[in-house]
Amino acid sequence: xxxxxxxxxxxxxxxxxxxxxxxxxxxxxxxxxxxxxxxxxxxxxxxxxxxxxxxxxxxxxxxxxxxxxxxxxxxxxxxxxxxxxxxxxxxxxxxxxxxxxxxxxxxxxxxxxxxxxxxxxxxxxxxxxxxxxxxxxxxxxxxxxxxxxxxxxxxxxxx
Length: 159
Fold this sequence. Notes:
Strand content: under 5%
Number of domains: 1
Transmembrane segments: 21-41, 61-80, 101-122, 134-156
Structural class: mainly alpha
Shape: elongated
Largest sheet: none
Radius of gyration: 18 Å
Number of helices: 6
Keywords: Membrane, Transmembrane, Transmembrane helix
Helix content: over 70%
């Protein structure tokens, strides 16, 4: 009984969550795909691999890394207020489910988005010169930041 309830809520929340973010996810992934392909081409000014390797050297010319910032904040753009909607709007409909289980499922869905992006980047670069310890640090940081962002959206009033 308990197992069926968990999987039923998981399927329901997955459908609601991914139904809410599907267009944002597709749009952001297409932009990232275009940016990655353009930066992997020979002769590009900025190497995408610096995002997956970490800071290795400092150049004499400093500039604000807008593209890097877009890649870092892209999970927030994708998730938006969908976690808040999942908890505040859809939880009262199934309030017989324990809140801990409901939030765990929501955190898992948010974490899956946070993990998808770096693994997509790794796949698109074909593992060329990637520092795996830094990469897993990046994945863990993405998960922590997106969970923190999702929790913050619960307490903020977004119209």
